[in-house]
Design brief:
Elements: H1 2-11, H2 14-30, H3 34-51, H4 57-71, H5 74-192
Helix pairs in contact: 1-2, 2-3, 2-4, 3-4, 4-5
Length: 193
């Protein structure tokens, strides 16, 4: 593992070099070579701090705690443990906030979609009502037109009837006048005879 680490120092990326040092540190800790583990961890910490890589902070804390525990440095181990706990709480809080924001976004999205669906349904119902009203309006307009035509026909026939009645009255008057004239002539003739 030490040779792989040396090889990665030459050809590997920064992340590879740090990751290999973390693995080497774990191996030294399992072999109870605490000082070698501490030395390798110091090298990894130096690379992390120079490059300002925050992704390895949790792993460095975990290994620093293990080294302090192996050395019997209880107070330092307790401080590392408290820091680890605080970071885990912060990470948990951040994840919880992210999950809550995600759930809230999903809720708002679902609520918006439901509102949109309700609006579409409402619009469809209103469109059906409007279509029905248009048909009713057309029917009423048709009835009104037919009523108007009938009314105009009645007015026309009424006026024509009045005109015919006047003509008939005049004809009757004329006929009556002629009838009276004929009767008078008949009476005159009868008197002459």
């Amino acid at each position: 593992l030490a040779e792989v680490t040396k090889e990665l120092d030459v050809i590997g990326s920064t992340n590879d070099r740090i990751t290999s040092r973390m693995a080497l540190c774990d191996a030294y800790l399992k072999l109870d070579q605490v000082e070698s583990a501490a030395s390798i961890l110091q090298e990894a910490m130096a690379q992390v701090s120079v490059l300002e890589l925050n992704g390895f902070q949790q792993e460095i804390m975990d290994r620093s705690y293990a080294i302090a525990l192996e050395r019997g440095q209880w107070q330092q181990a307790l401080q590392f443990l408290q820091t680890i706990q605080h970071q885990q709480d912060s990470i948990f809080a951040a994840r919880t906030e992210l999950k809550m924001a995600s759930l809230q976004a999903l809720y708002l999205s679902d609520a918006t979609e439901k509102d949109n669906e309700d609006l579409r349904n409402s619009n469809a119902r209103k469109e059906e009502i409007i279509t029905g009203q248009k048909l009713n309006n057309r029917f009423l307009i048709g009835v009104a037109v037919v009523g108007l035509i009938i009314m105009l026909a009645l007015i026309y026939t009424g006026r024509t009837s009045l005109f015919l009645v006047k003509r008939l009255k005049q004809k009757n008057k004329l006929i009556k006048g002629q009838h009276e004239e004929i009767e008078q002539k008949n009476l005159e003739l009868l008197e002459q005879n």
